[in-house]
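Hi F.,

I've been meaning to write this up properly since the lab meeting, where we talked about keeping a consistent format for the predictions we share between groups. The idea is simple: the sequence comes first, exactly as it goes in, then the structure tokens exactly as they come out, then a line or two of notes. No screenshots and no reformatting. I'm using this chain as the first example so we have something concrete to point to.
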Amino acid sequence: FNPTIIDINCGCPVPKVVKTGAGSALMRTPEIMASLVNFINKNTEIPVSVKFRTGWDVDNENYIDFAKLALDNGASSICMHARTKTQGYMPTAHWDRLENLTNMVHTQYKDIPVFGSGDLFEPNDGLRMLKETNVDGLMFARGAIGNPCIFDQTKHLLLTGEDIYPSPINQKIELILEQLDLMCLNRSNEELAFTEMRKHCCAYLKGVHGASHVKQLLMKAKNRNDYIEALSLLT
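Output, unedited:
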């Protein structure tokens, strides 16, 4: 597939992933993570990155040692979600840990980039994380669900100082239909695509005035025309 980068996800807290020993379970077996990075690094020229959390739980925050092990075995970049596995997505992400990590990497590993993740829901969150933690880059996750424009919006804010968030409703509708069409292309069963798209629509329309009835209609949408008719009520 000729990827630009291979990212090893040691941060996913979902039970069905963790129970296999993958995702954030690797925070408890850092030697396995290290062997993965080492093996891939020796067998390909493709850069390897590692995403992880601060630790398994608050009593076992091993992110500094985990990062060192990843970098010593050839990782070309790292990204940390500033919560433990047991914290999941609550409470507020601990950005002070990101600052600790960045300071360590910049001191001991110089040019290795550190990316931050956790509670990045709008462009200003990204700007604040860059200022408060000194990370080299951002990884939007949940913040991009229902708002794929967040990457361009953040770039625009950083370059111009102008905040263009949130997206206007007409742009949201265009994006919903574009994503729906792409999902239909990538599913052998179009009906499945129409069903799966419903949850994404809820994310796109979160906080939009008058969207409650439209969401109800979208939950019953079975084809593209159903989506168009429901969304037209917002314009």
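Notes:
Strands lie at 6-10, 48-53, 77-81, 114-117, 137-138.
The two ends are 41 Å apart (CA to CA).

If this format works for you, I'll send the rest the same way.

G.
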